[in-house]
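Appendix B. One record, verbatim.
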Amino acid sequence: MNRRTFFVLLGVPGAGKGTQAKLLEDRLGLPQISTGDIFRYNLKNKTELGLLAQSYMDKGELVPDEVTIRMVEDRLQQADALQGAILDGFPRNLIQAEALDQMTAPYGGVSLVPLIHISDEDAMLRITGRRVCRSCGAVYHIEFNPPKKEGVCGLDGGELYQRDDDKPETVRNRLYVYYKQTSPLVGYYFAKGLLVELDGNRSIESVQSELMELLAEKEVAQ
């Protein structure tokens, strides 16, 4: 069997999954794969799957799990994922988790599922405090990484704004969707003996260090 390494990162929005996935990508040489990136690629390049997804979006409908699953399956077959991948934002529900099991079964299945814990209050603070430069895209935080001049990017003087998906009402809805659709995955992966839990209320470096230790204990770190 050509064994590959697949990690699934879980946690509420704002837990730092994307940040940790990127660091793991750099250290392990495995690609970070997020459904957001996959959707943007397929929509931008008007692939067959992208056009199919767009047809649902144009009607105001959710993209079916089947389409999302096919996009991820296609991505996992690309050359940079021949040794495995770090999955960030997929699976989002039990249907997708079962599909991922089928995709990865020929290569040894999912290797480990780190769950990064932060409170809902911390998630709200982290996300609603973000500000983005309209011109260069630099990201600030009003508490953790404030600009020198309020509302002004320190790099190019551009205006800083709060994205719509970072506004409180949207973040609360994102948390609701997480608990409704994605939180059942915690029990799913716990039952498989794959779940490991980490305290996300620490520095990025501390969380990354513990992640690497956990991977080494599982004998899956490369």
